[in-house]
Structures are given as C-alpha cells and as structure tokens.
Amino acid sequence: MIYSTFEQFSIIRLITVHPFGNMDLSFTNSALYILIGVIIIIALHNIQGKLKPTRWQSVLEIIYENIGNVVKENIGTEGSKYFPFVLTIFLLIATMNIVGIVPYTFTPTAHIIVALGMSLSIWIGCTIMGLIIHRSDFFAMFMPAGTPIAMAPLIVPIELISYCTKAITLGVRLAANITAGHLLFAILAGFTWKMLISASYLTILSAIPFLIVVAITILEMAVALIQAYVFSLLLSIYINDTIHLH
C-alpha cells in the first residue's frame, strides 16, 4: 500500500550489486520498467504486417505515419535515415509513460535523472554528429551569418548557452509534465478512497472525485502520448539544426 503521495517515485533496489566498494550497480524498479519498455518495443517491431490489418497493426501504422511526417517535415528528405531512431524514442517514452499510469507501477520518465539522461545523451550525439559532418564549420552556428565581428563577444556566449540548454530543457520538460500529472492523480485518488471508506454521506459524494479521477486517467494517457510526441518533435528539430547548422 502507498502511504505517501511521493512514495510512487521512490527508487527501490530489487537486486543489490556493489562490485567495487561504493560503486552501486543495483538493479532497481526504474531499470525494470525501462527494460519492460524495451521488451514491449521489440515485440511491437516484430509484429508481422497483414494485408487486412489488425487493430494493433492499425495503431502502429498511424504512429508510423505520424512520426514519419514529423521527421520529414522537420528534417526533410535526409530524415529517412534518422526515422528509426526517432520512432524508437517515441515508442520507448510513450510505453514507459502509459505503463506508469497503472496503479502500483513505476514511471522512469518522471525521474529527472532518467529524462535528463536521455536528453543529455541526445545532445551529445547531435554535437558529435555535427562535428563529424561539418568539422570546424560546426562552430559557425554560434556566430549567425551577417553578424558584425564586434558583436562576437556578446553573441557567441548567448548562442553557446542557448545551445547547451537544449541538453537540459528537453528532459526537464518531460519529467516535469509526467510528475505533475502523477501527483495530481495520486492526490485525487487518495482523497476519493478516504471518502469512499468513510461511514457517512461522504461515501455518496465520493462519486464526484471518482469521476474526476477517471477523467484525469484519460487525460494522463493523452499527456503520456503528447509528451512522447513533443520529445520526438524536438529531437527531429535538433537533428535538423545539427545537419543544416540552424
């Protein structure tokens, strides 16, 4: 039983491993649900397409088409080779978000370390890709074309800070939205349960917050998909900026 609203965000060691002194390589509930997300994605990728699509195949085709459009609109024709990566990121985040809505489960994306780790990894990957593609010309993105050289001491630090914040904002946005939704859901669910078990007229009135909880559950599922979509959209934009030095 969860006794605290914040207990759902607790990291629990399932398998404790300390191979070198204080180094902690324990398998936690966060790692477990990330693994579950990966397994679900592999299972989805292995679904065999049929001429008459099943419901699951129809859903996957809709996702495939929408993410494909996002990549095409933001990266262009060159985006086809990045499409599998963007699609996988979308499915992973969406899966972890939706699984985390189930009571007594865990949502890794609600933890800033997981979301920030994903965004930082993407930022590092885009930076390395930019250096490989453009080499020294990559640094030209910190000095927009046509800018007077006298403005360089002011413009370059601003552009550099703006570029580095991408490593933070992408993950913070995801974690903040998922955490806020889960907190609201937990608070209302606890309030509804207390009203339901009370031996008074409050039991009847508990129908009101119960309906609100149902509505929030539906809203949470929408938010789970929207946040995965926004993450994929911004990822596509960052890849485009890296390729074309915007």
Structural features, described:
- The chain has 246 residues and is an all-alpha fold.
- The protein has one domain (38-244).
- Helix content is 67%, strand content 2%.
- Strands 1-2 form a two-stranded antiparallel ribbon.
- Helix 2 (55-75) packs across helix 8 and helix 3 (83-99) packs antiparallel against helix 8.
- The radius of gyration is 22 Å and the shape is globular.
Q: How many domains, in number, for the residues?
A: 1
Low-confidence stretches: none
The count of helical stretches stands at: 8
Total strands: the figure is: 2
Strand order of the largest sheet: 1-2
The termini sit apart by: 51 Å
Rounded radius of gyration (Å): 22 Å
What structural category arises from helix and sheet content?
A: mainly alpha
- Order of helices and strands, N to C? EEHHHHHHHH
Helix content: 55-70%
Mean pLDDT: 82
Largest sheet: 2 strands, antiparallel
> What general form does the structure show?
globular
Provide the β-strand percentage band: under 5%
Summarize the helices and strands and which ones pair or pack:
Layout: E1 13-15, E2 27-28, H1 29-45, H2 55-75, H3 83-99, H4 112-134, H5 152-164, H6 166-197, H7 202-205, H8 207-244
Antiparallel strand pairs: 1-2
Helix pairs in contact: 1-3, 2-3, 2-8, 3-8, 4-6, 4-8, 6-8
